Amino acid sequence: MIFNHIKMSVKCVDEKHPSIVKEERPFNALEELKKKIMV
Q1: Distance between CA 12 and CA 16 in Å, rounded?
Q2: What is the pLDDT along the chain (39 residues), one digit of tens a residue?
Q3: CA of 14: how far to CAs of 21, 29, 35, 37, in Å?
Q4: Model-level pTM greater than 0.70?
Protein backbone atom coordinates (compact mmCIF):
# COMPACT_ATOMS: atom_id res chain seq x y z
CA MET A 1 0.00 0.00 0.00
CA ILE A 2 2.88 2.37 0.74
CA PHE A 3 4.24 1.95 -2.79
CA ASN A 4 0.81 2.75 -4.27
CA HIS A 5 0.64 5.98 -2.26
CA ILE A 6 4.10 6.98 -3.43
CA LYS A 7 3.24 6.27 -7.07
CA MET A 8 0.01 8.28 -6.81
CA SER A 9 1.88 11.17 -5.17
CA VAL A 10 4.52 11.14 -7.89
CA LYS A 11 1.84 11.09 -10.60
CA CYS A 12 0.06 14.09 -9.08
CA VAL A 13 3.34 15.97 -8.79
CA ASP A 14 4.35 15.00 -12.31
CA GLU A 15 1.09 16.37 -13.72
CA LYS A 16 1.09 19.61 -11.70
CA HIS A 17 4.84 20.34 -11.60
CA PRO A 18 7.64 20.24 -14.19
CA SER A 19 9.85 17.16 -14.54
CA ILE A 20 12.66 19.02 -12.72
CA VAL A 21 10.57 19.27 -9.55
CA LYS A 22 9.44 15.65 -9.99
CA GLU A 23 13.06 14.49 -9.58
CA GLU A 24 13.55 16.26 -6.23
CA ARG A 25 10.01 15.60 -5.04
CA PRO A 26 10.00 11.76 -4.58
CA PHE A 27 12.78 11.86 -1.96
CA ASN A 28 10.97 14.49 0.10
CA ALA A 29 7.67 12.64 -0.27
CA LEU A 30 9.30 9.40 0.89
CA GLU A 31 10.75 11.11 3.97
CA GLU A 32 7.41 12.80 4.76
CA LEU A 33 5.50 9.52 4.38
CA LYS A 34 8.00 7.71 6.61
CA LYS A 35 7.60 10.39 9.29
CA LYS A 36 3.79 10.15 9.11
CA ILE A 37 3.89 6.34 9.26
CA MET A 38 6.32 6.35 12.22
CA VAL A 39 4.13 8.85 14.12
Answers
A1: 6
A2: 555 555 555 555 555 555 555 555 556 777 777 888 776
A3: 8, 13, 22, 23
A4: no
